[in-house]
Amino acid sequence: MVETVARLRLPPKTDRRLQDLMDRNHNGSLTAQERDDLEALVELSETIAIVRAQALQVLGRTPQ
């Protein structure tokens, strides 16, 4: 189970959406709904990163 958690990533479609929103946010062209979506996706991405890092620590590995 820890191996599975260590391999967690955002699904490709979700990752592309996050990247698009971040790029458009940098240009200042997000709607209020898109800003909310961006905030939620960033929070999800950060949570996955933390859980993944903890799993890697248990396995004695470093993130790649």
Give me some keywords for this one.
64 residues, mainly alpha, 75% helix, elongated
> Uncertain regions: pLDDT < 50 for 5+ in a row?
none
According to DSSP, the number of beta strands is 0
What distance lies between the first and last C-alpha atoms, to the nearest angstrom?
A: 19 Å
| Structural class by secondary-structure content | mainly alpha
Largest sheet: none
The 3D shape can be described as elongated
How many distinct domains?
1
In which range does the helix fraction lie? over 70%
Radius of gyration: 14 Å
Provide the β-strand percentage band.
under 5%
Average of the residue pLDDT scores: 95
Write the topology of this structure.
Blueprint: H1 2-6, H2 12-26, H3 32-59
What does this 3D model show about the protein?
The protein is mainly alpha-helical. It contains three helices and no strands. The protein has one domain. It is elongated.
Describe this structure in a few short sentences.
By secondary structure, the chain is mainly α. It has 3 helices and no strands. It has one domain.
